[in-house]
Amino acid sequence: MKVGEFRDANRKLVGRTVWHFDAVESTNETAKEMLEGDLEEGLVIWADRQSSGRGRQGRAWASPPGGLYASTILRPKEPHAWILGLLMGMPVVKALRHFGVFAGLKYPNDAMYQDRKMAGILSEGVYRRDIYHVIVGIGVNTNVDLDRLPPDVQAHATTMKREVNLFVANDEFLDYLLNQMDDLYSRYRNTRIEFLLKDYRGQCTTIGKRVSATTSKGTIAGKAYDIAGNGALVIMDGANVKHEFVEGQLKILP
Ligand code: BTN
Hints:
About 25% of the residues lie in helices and about 35% in strands. By secondary structure, it is α+β, with helices and mostly antiparallel strands. Strands 1-2-3-4-8-7-6-5 form an 8-stranded mixed β-sheet, sandwiched between helices. Strand 10 and strand 11 form a beta hairpin. The longest helix is centred in the last third of the chain and has 21 residues, at about 170-190. The chain is globular and about 55 Å long. Biotin binds next to helix 1, strand 4, strand 7 and strand 8.
């Protein structure tokens, strides 16, 4: 059920309007349903909990009350769902740092604190009425006790509540995050994507580390070396052969 609506006319596009729901299945799905109507670009669907939150690669995203679950509707000129999802990792990490968590950005867009995941992004491209839309869904473990997450997730996840002493209200966190996303999206619209990918490369803590990457084609191990022009992670294996990795399972090796 929709429980509120907020406006911020100072924002350029992202988050000029936010619709607040108490519970939805998935904010990405609610956002997609909205696409049938005429809605403004940058509309945000925010929920207090999700009954079937979704993660990347068909995984579930546990969404108990206390966490932050929000999806933003964008209409880029190019079909850049993947790249936008990648770039939006930067505002998420910036917001976490602003509120006292020294988070790192694991490729492609996981916000990590000491090797445990605190936030994730599911970015989806959809055509509706011949118009290309991108739904950027962000989940942040803000005010959640770790034991409210599924047992298999607990070993690899953490929450702000666990790592910072200060209580941060979700509306406050969302407000800061949307400002950062708005700035990033405006840069995306006005500058060349190479510049943004360069910034991303500088912020991605996976670069320089030894990794193993598993895709449907198999597993390769090597050093995370660069971000390609298409947003792929370039991995250099032991024989100095470069491989491009986009989706699959990426492990940071000790
Ligand atoms: C991941 O790291 O696997 C991505 C997690 C994305 C979760 C968010 S929560 C808001 C939005 N709605 C969803 O169902 N998923 C995204």
